[in-house]
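Assemble and predict.
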Amino acid sequence: MLRRAAARLSARAGARVFGALFALLAALAPALARAGELRLWHAYRDAEAAALVAIVEEFSARTGHRVELLAVAHESFGSKLAATIPRGQGPHVFIDSHERLGDYRQRALVGDAGPALEPDAVYTAQSLAAVTQDGARWGVPLSAKSVALFVNASLVDRVPGTLEDIAALKLPAGVYPLAYEAQSAYGHMPLLAAFGGRMLEGDARFGFVGPAAARSLAFAKELVDRGAVPRDADGALVSDLFRSGRAAFAISGPWLVGQLAGVEFPWRVVPLPKVGETGLPMRPPLTVEAAMLSPQGAASPAALALARALGSAEAAALRQRLAGTLSVRTDVPVPEDNPVLAGFRAQAELAEPMSADPAMRSTWEPAFRAIRKVLRGQAGPDDALAEAARRFADVRRPPPAAASPTPALLVLGLGMLLVAFHLVRRARDPEARRALRASLPAYRYVAHSVVVVGLLVFVPLIVGAATSLFAGRPGEGYYVGLANFVEILTARGGPLLATGSFWFVLLVTFLWTAVNVVLHLGIGLALGLVLSRPTLRLRALYRVLLILPWAVPSYVTALAWKGMFHQQFGAVTGLIHAVNDWFGTSIEPIAWFSRFATAFAANVATNVWLGFPFMMVVTLGALTAVPADVLEAAEVDGATRWQRLTRVTLPMIRPALAPAVTLGAIWTFNMFNVVFLVSGGDPDGSTDILVSEAYRWAFTREAQYGYAAAYAVLIFLLLLVTTRLPAWLARKEAGR
Amino acid sequence: MSPSGQGRKVSLAESIGAHLLLVVAVAFALYPLLWVVSLAFSGAVEPTPRVLPVPLEPTLEHLRGVAFSTLEVPGEPDRWLFGLQLANSIVISLATALVGVVIAVPTAYALARFDFVGKEGGVRALLATQMFPAVASAIPLYIILDGLGLLGTRSGLVLCYATTAVPFAIFQLRGAFETIPRDLEEAAMVDGATRFEAFRKVVLPAARPAIAVTALFAFMSAYNEFVLAHTMLGREEMYTVPVVLQRYISEFSADWPKFAAGSLIVSIPVMILFYIAQRHLIAGLTAGGVKG
């Protein structure tokens, strides 16, 4: 009676929850029905976004066109455009950096913006050049961004004329003369320019090679080795050092200005210095932000009017005033009360627009690796650069030649015939028909999930797998047969066990999976056993605290781990210092990401941290199934504690743990986030696992989706074989 | 010395050992999280290696900056954007859990109770889907959703999430149903209930903890996902929170404090859910099993 009442109550509560859920969905739905007339996408935040809203409001009031704004993450702008524009759901106008134009043009994501431009004379020559390709204009230039030199005026009263003079400054202890991203390719480009070099030459030839590049690298290494520049600095560290007065100069961009709002020292912005050795100025790459039109937008007069309005003199003045964004219009002067903007303008005049060639994308990874190798002293500039050039050439290598699809079609046809034959034979077999009829009731329970999972899981998976037989850029792929697999399995013609080859990455992946699963299981089991002690106090508290790593989004915690492993400023180094202080030892801080063993260990530490709660919970659950009387009986029989654990408890929970271990191993094998976010493959790509390698081919190396898909298929086959192997062996043995 | 005295002594030492182990584990679990907390509340930066994650010049500015963002639609009054987006996240994840469970429950039940043609092959194929990296199947998925007219809608996103959560849910629930004795349903059927009624009134209530756990997993997987959400959703008021957080990190400038603050806010509902569900979690997780 009571139970039935309780059941009814809970059913009612359930109904109420569902009711509330649908009410909420319905409440959110009206937003969906409201459609804007023009769609404008951008990647702005804060003041720049506010300025854009003001400009668009004015445009709407003036013309009566409604504009819908969407802020899109800068990193995934391209993939979102590619997913939506061909299906008519993309923006009419979007604001993006000019260096992506080459790529967008190849993928037919951008239309001719010519009609939206004003006469040439109103734009700076640089910005006009940046949006011009093959004689046409592909965007309305809006603003220019480049790095410049930030000066902490309380530390230095005068800006030295050369980089060498800056590096030689006498400053208080713990203050760096200069902070800049020495390890990144983008950060190195101004220095490279001062030695007369470029990342990419005009004809899509790799430029980061040869004497000029080698000298620029040697120079950077000397700056870091002397301690004039922080080691392993990323953008966040550069701004932190400058904001806290720990760097006299910093090379950074307009994005740093907003963060300097509350600082107590006077600062200003000037163009980058010369390098004394060559007498040439450091020239940063210039990014021109432009209002681009999708093909759909380029055909719409309203969208063209919007692009023109975004690029108008009024809009430019407003952006400069509200957001401090440097205009590229010659008729919009920098406000006199804004010396910071004047500094950026002076720098922009000396800067060189970044190459918009799609090949530029392929320079970053090889250049980055070469720079890091040299700065760490693991290779001389010449060797590192030669390797970078080889890598660039490898990635840029033309895709395999088209193959005739006839053999594959023949195999496919034959396979289908065989299946059809098999089906017909079974349909004729009365036994099979009876079995099928007996299965009918069960099919009523599974039909819907077969349809849904089939459509949304299997079909994409099979299509995805089939792309592995194709090559070429998205949209113009052609059939190449098994050529992608041949390339991968032969390590692209290089030595089979070289860093980055399939076989090397495979070994690393197996090591990665084995180490992680053993540690997950070991720690999870130990904690589960301890937590299940009947006499333990505070059990619920421990349980909740130990589950937390699982509850917080893993992308933020992975990045927190990476920060902890920073050689100079990480918490791990802090702990080492503390240990040295307390115990009088002299352990050196570890450069975690410069050697394979330590970088791998850092990845493992992060992933173990993320994964042990799952195993702990599984163990706890499994242990509830071990009857106490069995353990007592074993104790009475004189079994020691260890014997009870290994002979009774573990065998009893094994069946419950096995599936969790299998799934855990599969997930670890494909654990992309940790590797990508923590070590990022460092050093030199050696800690990459198969799935992060596949990702690189798909997204950072020329969008070779077919090649990446071939990796995915190989991962799939490997996992299939490894997980099925024990069962097959068992069956074979049993059959004997 | 009496045996019982010895036993007590050992258990005291053991108990201290157990607590010591747990305290070390808790420290390991919390230390990185505390850095995130410290970053979210710090008003200043101090680039020196530190040991204790204490916020410098504590401030609520970052939390406020994230939580009180507004939607600025040209020509309309501002709306509380972050609230909308958090609501989106929660509703989408709850709907995912609901749809995922509704799809998985009958299938898992059939797998646990019936023998039918194609059962073994289907289960193996389902396990195999877990082995294929998701990166490779994203683009075909867009095309299919576009064909269904669901691209750019929250319902389409829910369907995507639900179906990717279904294989795991089926394995979990099949194991749970297998542990429920068949006698229970058979008794009900002898009393005149149909098989479906027996399933609905007897088996489902008995499997409730396992269903709760499965739903929690589906919820979690949807709640933290941002690649699909970012590509599929075409309106700012439709965004989920992970998509918004992603925007604080861009190529040149990363707003780490706001990113951290936002991550803390998003993890609060999850922690509450975990706290509520932890009893079920422990009873339900191991009920499932993969038999491939």
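The domain at 35-144+288-351 of chain A is CATH 3.40.190.10 (D-Maltodextrin-Binding Protein; domain 2).
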